[in-house]
Design brief:
alpha/beta, Rossmann fold, 3 domains, 6-stranded parallel beta sheet, 5-stranded antiparallel beta sheet, 27% helix
Amino acid sequence: MSLKATIAAFEDWRRTGEPLVMVTVIRTEGSTYSKPGHRILIAANGDYQGLVSGGCLEGDLAAHARDVIDTGTPRTVLYDLRDEADEVWGMGIGCDGMIEVLLQRLDRVTDYEPFATIARCALDGWNAVCSVVTASDDARIAVGATRIDSEGIELAWQPGEDEVKIDLDQLRTLHGTPRTLLTRHDGATVFHSALRPVPRLLVIGAGPDAAPLVRMAAELGWLVTLADHRPAYLDEPAFDAAERRRLARAGELADIGNPDGFAAAVIMTHHLDTDRAWLGTLAATGIGYIGLLGPRARRDRLVGEIDNAESLGDRLHGPVGLNIGADGPESIALSILAEVQAFLSPDDST
């Protein structure tokens, strides 16, 4: 249940014109299934897209969502499962954690904000922070008041946000990270979270071993662009999961488009000259993760044959993937995606 899948469900539900509820995890302690900043959607009939827990709390959340839809009033709900006996909930979950969530109604009157803009930021890769009031002692500041800021530019807001004094310099420290922050000022508690874009992966090389990589990345909810200079390879049905397929000459980014939107790229053409051309081209981009398939000796040879090797720095991962004993296309794809996932999700515990 990826962010991409949640956005797809949102678009389907929005077309019906029915109200929805956005659930945002705003605070956790101990062991929890999801972390602050995670969001799911609940429809009026109780259907939900995404998980806050492993399915243990969603039924109760659906009941709260029904009330929020009926009243239009945002609310917070706290689940404390740290009691070994689970005496309060009787669920026997054993998560040993506490999770607090905020529920907000989305409807046609507000054009389904703020999730409409959250979805737009995720798909377009905008660097943004969402700030929402979760508690307030001031009648002028409404719980649920929301602002979305991208590099100091307000993208969206909900009624009442203009009463909230937000330190933009402090918020900008969150940009581009999965970090969250709770602040208290002027009688209001505000939850800030950096919005994570849907990851975009560039796969260069449409050989048979690229098929599980493309398919598994798509299943994770990533947007995959597949590039190759061989039209017949690109046309294979095995690559139907790719968002885009691009016929590209070796090392020609103009055939693919702006590289800045890609979180990661993997070179796997199995051809030395082609890999060399792409390695030199990608070294000149700002892509944070560049994977190169093949053994260390091959990597060292290619790096030694490009003029701008120093630009790669620690961005180059070769052999690409975690060392998990992979010995086939599927397990190699798993090792690559695990390493990219770790790169995309730095420790945000501090």
